[in-house]
Amino acid sequence: MPPDPALIKTCIHCGFCLPTCPTYVVWGEEMDSPRGRIVLMREAAETGGGLGSIVTHIDRCLGCMACVTACPSGVRYDALIEQMRPEVERRHTRTPADRAFRRFCFEVFTHPGRLRALVPLLVAGRRLGLDERLRGWLERQSGPEGRRRFRRLAAMLRLTPDVALSAAWRRLPERTRAPAAAGPFRGTVGLLQGCVARVFFARTNEATVRVLSAEGFDVVVPKAAGCCGALLMHSGVEAEAQQRARALIGAFEGCETVAVNAAGCGSAMKEYGRLLADDPEWAERAEAFAAKVADVTEVLARVEPRAARHPVPLTVAYHDACHLAHAQGVRAEPRSVLAGIPGLTVVQPAEWEICCGSAGLYNMLEPEPAAELGRRKVANLAATGAAAVVAGNPGCALQITVHSDRRLPVYHPVEVLDASITGRSLP
Ligand code: SF4
Ligand code: SF4
Known about the structure:
The protein is α/β, with parallel strands linked by helices. It is about 50% helix and about 10% strand.
């Protein structure tokens, strides 16, 4: 469906959303603001055929949804942009290089098996310094006039996380039972491992399983649960996103709750009802599934803590991941989980509502504005004086790590809680 004219009309052009829009903050251009983009969506709806320069401004939107939080009129920009992205893919022909880069990202980042196969190469490349040399070469090719494909590849290399060889074979158990010491059984939670996360952030997934079981839940990690389709959905690749959604719904059949520790995945899964609304066979199941999805901090905040907490004497800056804070409205829960950890001080950076520039594939597709936002975010986080950052999204963790030149350690809230429950030090 193209963007809904009734939703477009709800914008009264007041401009309250402008100061929270990262692209407006960077460029100060009306067409790179939520208000401007809504006008462009109206133009696209009123005219047929190609979309011309409208595509540039839609592509530059991070989908951070800060405008949804800021809008006093309740404009559903989230629904509008999710309708507009597939419209772009239907009505616009991308250059072969652009298509190839996007396809490469989908074929690699949404397939954990392929990512695992790359691990030995990445480890060897880093040990031999080949990644740095290749990145340097790519950056030199880009030149002052800038050649998009090289800049994008250089950004991808820069964002590749440090990974241990063990990531190639590390697996979570399919079921982890709550120990008897955790008290009366609290239910079974299905855990989404993510694609990039299960390979590059295995320690977060392992901490999630330990914390949930220590709090009295059985944790199920179905083998059949693959990619949630978030990257595809947020890029307008609708049919493939729908396929992934159907498969994931089937894989988690029987779980009362589906916990997610990656904000981007969680927000996409909570949107499955909308994604499959036109599919008579799946619409109802998708709605029911979306209602079971919860960020892991939501699951933990709903219950009284049971496991004993040891002190974690550390000051951390809490970074609100956009897909958690704006897209899901989850701000209180991670803070309440962290507040239960003795010795931990949590501080808030300035401009919490402005995106760090990660936004799924954005920091590879649009490397320059993403880097500017990354540096701005790191400056705000560093200004708090905190020794580490806590963020509930692997993409944000990578972006902050890279733009702090790997000086600011970034932890997921469950990793800090796991350190408190197990009494182990944070890595
Ligand atoms: S999206 Fe909301 S805040 Fe922004 S201009 Fe429209 S009505 Fe105003
Ligand atoms: S989603 Fe984010 S980047 Fe896009 S218009 Fe809204 S505030 Fe701006």
